[in-house]
Amino acid sequence: MASAIFRIAALWALGAFLPRAFAGFDPGASNNIAIYWGQNSINRAGGQQRLATYCSNSPVNIIPLAFLHVIKNPTSLNFANAGDNCTTFEGTQLLRCPEIEEDIQFCQSLNKTILLSIGGATYTEGGFASPEEAITWANRLWAMFGPPPAAPPSADILRPFGSAVIDGFDMDFEATSSNMEPFAAALRRLMDDSAAGETPSRRYLLSAAPQCPFPDHAMGAMLDAVGFDFVAVQFYNNYCGAPSYVPGAPAQNNFNFGTWDQWARTASVNRKVKVLLGLPASPSAAGTGYVSGEQLRQVIAYARGYGSFGGVMAWWLMFGDRDMSQAYGNPGFLEGIRSALGVPLPPITTVTTTSTRTSQVPTTTLSTSTVTLTKTTSTNGPTPTGPLVPQWGQCGGMGYNGPTQCQPPFTCVYLGDWWSHCA
């Protein structure tokens, strides 16, 4: 446990030194990259690391936390193995997660956008009985995850992330639910009012993840009624998915990014809403829809021709689980997205930690490590021979028998017993 503490302490120190080139969601850009975190969908030991791990030296600038899968009493969160480091509030099953609280604040120090995704495939409440109930629960969620109130909150308002404040909410409802329009509208209003009163002012975001058939059967009415900042359309598992794109065709009969672009420009409440190209992050991530290599590059290049294009959302989706354990577990996929979007490489920093302590301590204690930071600007020593692993590709881990040397200037970084990658 101590070694994990020292690594995360090093990440905190690193946050103070890294430049702010990799900011959060940019509404004026077409190279945003968003990946879900929280479900360990790769389903192996060490597959999902702490949230802070994916914020460091990473081109990903938007991370929705998946999922808040029960809204009403009892409100419930599920973060797979990351929940093992949480406790529960007394007398409830609601998670209290100091480690995630800590990591949210660290990621935000690197200008990453951290959203809380509501719903998922396991959401079964069916929405709200009335608009009034929907608004009541929007207010409660904002009290739980938005800025802490100036006065002590009421005893029944519990904050799973403590003092951390998320950057907004993501809607991921996959079945028709009642009174979602007033729910989303209330969250939009609460976030906008809060942002207007903050100094310096900030922007809280509202996003959604509809499926590509238009209009989306579960969230179409909500998307038409409320101003969203971006929608990450699921272009897979449907006839309109990314594999349906025909290179060079004058018209696309099935791949319908153009339909979503028209909605964004002419029908959405926010006419500047961005449309992100949602893709599965591995070959096993969906029944259909995975593209890579030249096919990935061509689909992104085509979508970039539309004015609403805002970047790529990469995810895993199998029984509702989707997160970056798959993207980081699929060598070269994230690098292919980064390259196609023209996102520059993040600064490469080597972090060395030392400590004389041997006893176990709680994971929220970070102040006892000694951290040495060294900016790597060149690589000395003999030139590697044999195949070289690209950035983010796997270079080590239990059971791994592939190449272990990284393309310069990258180095092999240990992220767990089952996974090391080039960064």
Automatic annotation (TrEMBL):
Subcellular location: Secreted
Pfam family, one: Glyco_hydro_18
Reactions catalysed, as given in the entry: Random endo-hydrolysis of N-acetyl-beta-D-glucosaminide (1->4)-beta-linkages in chitin and chitodextrins
Domain of life: Eukaryota
Family annotation (CDD domains): GH18_hevamine_XipI_class_III
Predominant location: secreted
Domain GH18: start-end pairs: 31-344
KW Hydrolase (keyword) present: yes
Record domain CBM1: where: 387-423
EC number: 3.2.1.14
UniProt xrefs under InterPro entries: CBD, CBD_sf, Cts1-like, GH, Glyco_hydro18_cat, Glyco_hydro_18_chit_AS, Glycosyl_Hydrlase18_Chitinase
Alphabetically ordered keywords of this record: Carbohydrate metabolism, Chitin degradation, Chitin-binding, Glycosidase, Hydrolase, Polysaccharide degradation, Secreted, Signal
GO cellular component annotations of the record: extracellular region
Signal peptide per UniProt: 1-23
Keyword Hydrolase: yes
A biological-process GO annotation: chitin catabolic process
Molecular function per GO: cellulose binding; chitin binding; endochitinase activity
Family (UniProt): Belongs to the glycosyl hydrolase 18 family. Chitinase class III subfamily.
Name of this protein: chitinase
Origin species: Canariomyces notabilis
